[in-house]
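Schema walk-through. Below, the input block comes first and the output block second. Nothing else is stored per chain. Lengths vary across the set, and this one has 328 residues.
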Amino acid sequence: MRYVIWPLLGIVLLAACGPGTAVPVEAPNPTVALQAVEATATPEPKAVVAPTSTAIPVAAAPTSQPAPLTYPAGLKITVGAVPSSMPAYDRDDWRHWIDSDGDCQDARQEVLVAESAIPVTFESSNQCRVDTGTWTGPYTGTSETDPGSLDIDHMVPLANAHRSGAWAWDAGTKESYANDLSYAGHLIATTASANRSKGAKGPEDWRPAETEYWCQYAVDWITIKSQWDLSATDGELTALVEMLQTCVTPVQLEVLHQESSEIDPTPSTTASPDLKFDPNGPDRNCGDFDTWQEAQDFFKAAGGPITDRHRLDSDKDGTVCESLPGAS
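--- output ---
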């Protein structure tokens, strides 16, 4: 069975229950009715987890709040704990800003062009760097005309993405995430002070001062995490639901819960008798190995590609010492 809470105003939360499982839900106020409908399909989470779902009663939204700029008819987020052990976050692993379309404007410049309220001017005739425009920071509601006073913020910060599952991504995926222009809410031009106040915090620890932006902020956050198969914590979910309560138009949110993870983020560093060197021993470089296969086996035994404690994979593509004989 699938239970649906249908508020007259506010958020619609789906609870996809297992066979024969009933989840009692009380309407939070007299304007909310509860219906039970037969489930035709249970969505499968993309995360490597065993999903369950619960219903969360949500109060009706106020009517004075403007509707969000844009959001899909349905949203989905997976909730689970942050692994107790994982590779350390390194901002240098997330290469940005890049010029993915080769027009000489990198991702930062593309965002400045797209989000200016007026046509921008450029520093030179090649139109590679923005010189002036008008930007209203959605976090604060303040306007700026100098792009130098703006930061380009990742809606879901890189460090938050890392601890939400991106620690296991390869270098190419991290680069794609750091420069993604496919979703308008992924990269935001905002004041440097607001961006640095936010830092790597999730909505449980930081929210925009502009409360009228809360609905769109929460929708964008959930959409990005869903698109990139990133999880949220319980505290994060609570904060997101509170922010979604400011939406005028009802939002349908499906919450999947991770009961257990099949991923062990702790790299194995057990030495093999076939290895030329002990991966737990002194630092090694490519010159210590006679063949590429020796270096690659050593790299994997030392925890690669999750971690490269001997720094053998300079381009972070998972293949080490490519100049050695036998490299593929």
